[in-house]
Structures are given as structure tokens and as C-alpha cells.
Amino acid sequence: MSAKKGLALHTKIFIGLIAGTVLGLLGKALFGGDPRLAWCAVNLANPLGQVFLRLVFMAVVPLVVAALALGVAEIGDIGRVGRVGARTLMLTLAFSAVAVLIGVAGVNLFKPGAGLAPEVRQALTASLQSQAVTRNLENAGKKKGLVQTLVEIIPKNPLADAVEAFEGGLIPLMFFSLLVGLSMSLVGPAKAAALKGVFESVLAVMLKIIELAMGLAPYGVAGLMFSVSATAGVEALRLLAGYFLLVAGALALHLLVVYSTAIAVICRRSPLAFFKDISGVMMTAFATSSSNVTLPVSLKAAQEELKLPRDISNFVLTIGATANQNGTALYEGVTVLFLAQFFGVDLTLGQQFSVVVMSILAGVGTAGVPGGSLPLIAVVLQSVGVPGEGIGIILGVDRLLDMSRTVLNVTGDLTIAACVSAMEKDPA
Ligand code: ASP
User: What distance in angstroms lies between residue 68's CA and the mean position of ligand 1's atoms?
Assistant: First the structure.
């Protein structure tokens, strides 16, 4: 999603972040407490952010349905290939779940988002004019038990859930999309072809809308950062830095501990030699922020450097580029919980559980393109009562995190390809 000419989009977004923050901090230093500053935040800066966010939000529901159904239909196809498919699926789910849990444990341990004074938070929520927090407070009285929460994952009426996606309907809608994808692969390619074509087209068009909306992101981010820094001051920046370090550290931990262990134990290879062999792939992923763009490079490395059997690696890597995104899953979990802490939204056990499930599914349903996970984060935030505006706060530092999580996404695909190859050789 880089700009055709001039500065790249992510550079412009970063400039938006700096400009909004500096103006906000200056405003707070010079006019702190003056109602006119709050007026500027509400009536000038915030609408800039709202226009950008609304353009993203409107594409989210069709995007999620199409992306998830297609992702699962593809995994379902490998399911038919038998043992290789089943092992790929099992490892994908296991690695994604471990990744999310590492992230979630990190947020609970270090609490990077906690620390804003309650009155600052209140002013911030007011300046962002978000209804999400109010709604969460309203819903707090009607907390459901864990069993009921689990039962309600299965939708009665998916259309109603689509309408309510921002108010808690996302998980049931995801469940429906998942079943649609699974059933597409069960009815077979001939009968599923038309629907697959429709979903592919919906996905492409929605991604285009988001790409167009991203053109406004530099202004949206500037507006939202102005509101945040004029209200919360330097403290907000300190929290943002903590969030950045936590995501980067958790990604590194997953790479160095989880993947290394799997490579040593399941593949019986030296993790160091493995990472050296795929260093070109990792660098491509970092530079492009896109699993899809990196795919040809990983296919080549799997055969020429890692010497994996071609059928298995082609199979696992092609599916994995969209369906196995551990870095993205980890990042989604951390981001949603961080922003919940930032806005002082207490998540119930059920809600935290939803975040974990949604983050794992996000790894399956996210397009392997730069910033592919952002639309999904926006809706997950809203659905657990955290202001979607939070996305404007993290967007400014997102590019570097996007580059890093993409490295993890493709390294995970290669690790699974190597594990499945090793298991096939030694099917004990
Ligand atoms: N850029 C990531 C990828 O291509 C997706 C994301 O997390 O935004 O793997």
C-alpha cells in the first residue's frame, strides 16, 4: 500500500503521527485547561480521524466474511489430502494459540497500557466522542456466564450478527463464515466455484476500499494523535513506547523460543542453521511487510536451502501465506488488550476469551498484505467495548511492527513446512 509517487504511505503516516503529537503537546503546554483546546480536539481534530475510521469500518464486515470463508475453504482442501493436511492444521492452530497466549501473558504481566489518571481517561474518551466505552459500561450490568458465552458463539441469525458486528456480533459471524468455508470444501470445487468467485471478488473490492481509505490515514492519525496528546500529554507517548517494546519482545520470544524448540525437537535440525538458511526470506518479509509477496522467495528457500520435499513445502507454504499468521495473531491480542488498558476498559473473562479466539482466527482471516490486520483489529476493539479510535493511536508506529510480525508469519510457515516434512519422513 505504498504511495505511487512522493513519500511512501507509511512515511506519511509517521509524519502525521509526529505532527499531531507535537501540535497536541504544544497545545497542552500553552493552553492546557482552556476549553477552546478541548473544543479544537472535539470539533476539528477528531472528525479527521472519524472520516478515516468510518471508511475502514464500512468495509470490515464483508471483508471478514469473505476472507475467513476463503481461508478455511483452503485449509479444508488440504484436509482432504489427509495426514499432511491434518498435521498442518494442527500445527497452525497450536502455534497461533501459543503466540496469542505469549502476547496476552505479556500484556497482563507488564500492563503497558495502564497508568493514565482516571480524569485524563475520561477527558480523552470525551474528546474522541466514542460510544464504545459507554456501551461497555451499559453492558457491564448484563454479564453472561462462560457457558452462555460459549453457546452464543453459534449464531441464530448470522445476518443479525453482521448488523451487530461492532456490538459483539463478530464472533458468531466469524463462526458462520468458518462453517461456510468448511462446507464449501465439503461440497466440492464444482458446486463451490460460484461462491468462491463471489468471495474472491468481494475480498478484492473491500481491500481496495481500505486501500483508498488508507490514503487519508496520515490526516486521520494526525487528528487522533492531536486529541490524545492534547489530553493525555507525554504520558500517552510513554505508554505507546511500552506497547511497541512489548509487541517486539513477544514476537522475538516466539521466534527464538517456540520456533527454535520446534525446529530442534520435531525437525531435529539446528535452529541456528535453519534461520541462516532462510535469512533471505526473513529479510524479504521485513522489507515488504507482506506474506503474499514473500511467498515465491520462501518456496525457493524451502527447496534449495532447507531441501524440503517439493510437494509438502508448496502445499504448506501456499496455504500458510494467508492462513498461518502467528505474528499477526500475537499482535492482535496484545493490541486489543493494550488499548483496553489504555482506555480503562475492564474486560470480563468471557471478553478476554473472545479476544484470544478472535486473534487466533485473525491469523487465519488476515490478508497477507501490509497492514492486512488493521481492519480486523478495528472491529475486534469495538466489539469488546474499546474505542475503535484506538487504532489511530497505534497506527503511527504500526509499520515497523507490521514488518516484524510479517517476519514471524513467514518463518512460521517455513517452520511448519519443515516439521510436517520431518513427521512424514519419520511417521512414528
Ligand atoms: N502484513 C502482514 C502479512 O502480510 C499481515 C498483517 O499482520 O497486517 O503477513
Answer: 15
Instruction: Count CB neighbours of 274 within 10 A.
Output: 22
pTM beyond cutoff 0.90: no
Q: How many CB atoms are closer than 10 A to CB 48?
A: 22
**Alpha carbon distance 410, 393 (integer Å):** 27
Q: How many angstroms is it from 338 CA to the middle of ligand 1?
A: 19
Distance 292 CA to ligand 1 centre (A): 9
Among 294, 405, 413, 414, say which to mutate for ligand 1: greatest number of ligand atoms within 8 Å of CB. Answer: 405
Instruction: Name residues contacting ligand 1 (CB within 6 A).
Output: 289-291, 325, 328, 366, 368-373, 402, 405-406, 409
| Structural domains of the chain, ranges and CATH numbers in brackets | 64-209+233-425 (1.10.3860.10)
- Angle, alpha carbons 12-18-19 (nearest 5°): 85
Q: CA–CA distance from 284 to each of 174, 258, 370, 373, 408 (Å)?
A: 31, 22, 13, 19, 12
Mean pLDDT in runs of 10 for the chain (428 residues)? Answer: 64 87 89 80 81 81 83 68 79 93 94 84 69 47 61 88 78 85 88 94 87 85 84 83 95 97 96 94 88 86 91 82 88 94 86 86 80 83 82 82 94 96 77
Ligand 1 centroid vs 35 CA: distance in angstroms?
Answer: 41
| Integer CA distances (angstroms), 292 to 78, 261, 321, 414, in order | 19, 26, 6, 14
Q: Hey, which of 1, 281, 402 would you mutate to test ligand 1's pocket, going by the most ligand atoms within 8 Å of its Cβ?
A: 402
C-alpha cell at 233: 500529554
CA–CA dist 370, 293 (Å, integer): 10
| C-alpha 265 to ligand 1 mean position (Å) | 28
Q: What is the dihedral of CA 76, 80, 85, 90, to 10 degrees?
A: 60
Q: What is the CA radius of gyration of the chain?
A: 21
Task: Output DSSP code: residue 348.
Answer: P
Relative to the CA of 371, which ligand 1 atom is closest? 8
